[in-house]
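Exercise 7 asks you to align residues with tokens for two separate proteins.
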Amino acid sequence: MNRPINQPINRPTRRPLYVVGHGLVLGRSGGRLVVSRDSAVITSAPLGRISEVVVFGNVGITTPAMTALLAEDAPLVLLSADGRARGRLEPPKASHIEARRRQVLLQHDDAARLELARAFVRGKIHNQDVLLRRRAATADEPADVWALARRVAAAGTAVDNAASIAELVGIEGAASGAYFRGIRLLLPAELGFRRRERLDPDLVNVLINYTSALLREVVFGAVVAAGLDPYVSFLHAPRSGRPTLVFDLMEEWRAVLLESTVLGVLGLRMIRPEDLTTDPAPRTGDSTDGRPRLGPSASAAVIARFRARVDSPARSWTVSPGTTYATLIREQSLALRRRLIDGVPYEPFRWR
């Protein structure tokens, strides 16, 4: 008997395995992946319970480990020590010809591209507004945070009138400028956060960069699982080697999962400026060498907080109680697929 399309399949829950730390080696022992240093086992996990392996920095990986991951349809993600993408080993997948054909066609349809880009930005601005309003009471000057939230919301009212991607990007930039001024007011002044700038060396920007890399890989997996091409985008201009569709779909999750995680670890004082290190040991020629980055214990704390956030029940008026953010990220990729194939309007996730 054929299984109904909406009936869930009972499979063991799979979770990412994060490997963080210079000098570690990822290998295979029987049906498990094993992380070791100097032949001493640090941790291990059953292959059948791993959704993907995300490696940060200078970690050795054995061929048997890579072969086992491919056999389990589990990607291997290679990131620099501060979370910048280096590459990804992807298992062979069944082709999704129609979805990808429609994706390419719509990417060259100016009206369709603008429609989707508006949806991504609309979701992002709404969720930025919600975060500031929810956190305003914790600020030293709540009225100032509320005023900035209103500026973010006002920018959002202009999204549907944007006549071009360029105009839409300008609206998004104005909203993000007010939003990060609000974020600054939610943080202690001694953290030195002035603005959102990827290359700034303060702890807040380092944390945002790092958590962005974690979110990127979660969304990347959802995009690939939905049969979409992660390199053919609508809001972000496609660029060789950059998964710009993933960046599109990340927009609505940034306030919800990324900045909220950063505010959480800082609010609980789980991470402090002294947790930053500039020791690349050894230099690899990576462009991030010499920049501040999180030490191993701080990285582990951020990863744990981020995963707990992703796996927590979502706050929204439109989803079933108990539905996690991880589930919704996958559902949003499938919703985009339905837009491409069936023309069903794409609606971004709206936080509450």
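Second protein for Exercise 7:
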Amino acid sequence: MENSINPTDNEGLVESFPEEKWRGDELLCQINGFWLMPHFIPGIKRVLTHFKPLPTDIILSSFPKTGTTWLKSLLYSITNRSSIHSLVQNNPHELIPFLEIHVYGESKPTGLGIPADTNLDSPRIFSTHIPYQLLGTTLESSGCRVVYVTRNPKDTLVSMWHFVNRWKGVEEEEKPWELDEAVEKFCDGVFPCGPYYDHVLGYRMASLERPRNVLFVTYEELKSDAKTHVRRLGEFLGCPFGEDEEEVEEVVESCSFEVLSGHEVNKSEDLASWFPVPYNSFFRKASVGDHKNYLRPESIQRIDELTREKFHKFGFVYGI
């Protein structure tokens, strides 16, 4: 296949794939139908080539801006209940590393397995935005557990639009990323890790085929009944809560937006060492339906029509 990754060819990866503009003159590169940021492609390649999951590993997968930060705090708290206080001093992204950024990113050596500075407590927890269509073979070979979180496409789009406009350099530009352009690119699928619908369906289908290994959860159901789904996560991860309701409530409260966003580390304007955004940009609003405050009715209608076409015809009635 023309766009396929060749595991034996690490050099010239970015230059070898189709490119398209997504924000102003910024480019994305297409691999196996997905549009990826060039800066992250070497790390993604190293994940696909060198990462060998253990059966006890936990992988949090997500499309960008669908609840990753919240799920990181929940998964860490559920599996490290005696260390739940770590969330006070550490941003959730520092506690659960991204495979393609923290673990196999550009500053990491290749071919050495998991670097020594990665958290090796068992179970190991990693996160990724890599589509299942690329990562599935690696995940299936190990029997590890995968948690995938998705979010309403319109809220995902608006959250990403806000997030991009907080990037270092973007804020100083005369022209920020226009929302109409963001809508156009989202619908065309030319979006970081996009197309969104293909990304979601890859993990959705995997969860139906391998329910013991892949748990699919929506941001909205977590918001509507966090306690029930924290219990569900605990059971899936092999860390059941039993009859201890207070422990469930402690996890839910400690990982709530109100509590997490109040910690000094998460209020910081300092830039993360691994991405050019301030830590407080990961905690904006955390609401459901915020897109109504930003998207024009015709944009909502366009995305809803696309959602019916992409999701509903596959029996996944979601997103509208």
